Amino acid sequence: MSAVIAAEALSKYFGRHPAVIDLDLDIPPGVVFGYLGPNGAGKTTTIRMLVGLSRPSSGRVLIGGADAVRDRAAAQHRIGYLPGQFVAYPDLTAREYLGYLAHLRGGVDHKAVTRLAERLDLDTGGRIGAMSHGNRQKVGLVQAFMAEPEVIVLDEPTTGLDPLVQREFQAIVREARERGATVFLSSHVLSEVQAVADTVGILRQGRLVEVRAVTELTARALHRLRFEFAGTPPNAAIVRALDGVRTVRVEGRTAHVEIEGSTAELLKVVAPHDVVDITGHEPDLEDVFLTYYGRE
């Protein structure tokens, strides 16, 4: 299946400082792609190149086959975009602003605009300049989704939104995926990314260091397990030598183990020692993120 978002050896330098280095992406239709990294890793720089707002120093971006620089108009027509700092005309009402954008873009169902606003609990009669940050963010979300674009690029989309609206946003993202749209989602809210993303890319110091399915990443993440034994726990050195074990701490008849990836071999080692209780933390995307950046 051909990529809807493709980046080929994409790099961006600011002077001599590399912000993004030799980035390759190949994202098919109908996928939610989570893009993760700490502040300064190059996430927003990547996004600005994807949507044609920043020219790459080298490499190229293709959106639905259209070059984001050479065929910018065709590429941008396929995109719904919410920037990290959404700005709109403050003197217009949300209704006026969204109507204006719909007119410029063409082909927008005004009933769809109304439905989106209602789902996000947005009063479109309010003047944008008088809105709270959260309500302005809702305006940004409506304009990103309202044309049902082929590609939706979202940079920190739920900033300022309350939990109920965040949940509705996640439902809207899933519905976009179901109709075949590709969603590129950059967010610091890792639970949100885990809830909706199929695949995650991890960016570190401008380089894409991992692209995997969310389920695969969490399966490889750090498990924190606590074992209670009726008698003497297994030898800590034997447990520590197992593949993936990061830490072992034995206190009396209790052992605390941190292990990356599969726990099968660990369970085989502890099983003969009369285990009376096992408690643990099911790893999530936050554990994956902390594992990656704890290695630096």
Automatic annotation (TrEMBL):
One Pfam family here: ABC_tran
Superkingdom, natural source: Bacteria
Domain ABC transporter positions: 5-230
Entry keyword set: ATP-binding, Nucleotide-binding, Transport
A GO molecular function held by the record: ATP binding
UniProt-listed PROSITE patterns: ABC_TRANSPORTER_1, ABC_TRANSPORTER_2
Cited InterPro entries: AAA+_ATPase, ABC_transporter-like_ATP-bd, ABC_transporter-like_CS, P-loop_NTPase
Gene3D superfamilies assigned to the protein according to its UniProt record, in alphabetical order: P-loop containing nucleotide triphosphate hydrolases
Family in the record: Belongs to the ABC transporter superfamily.
Record protein name field: ABC-2 type transport system ATP-binding protein
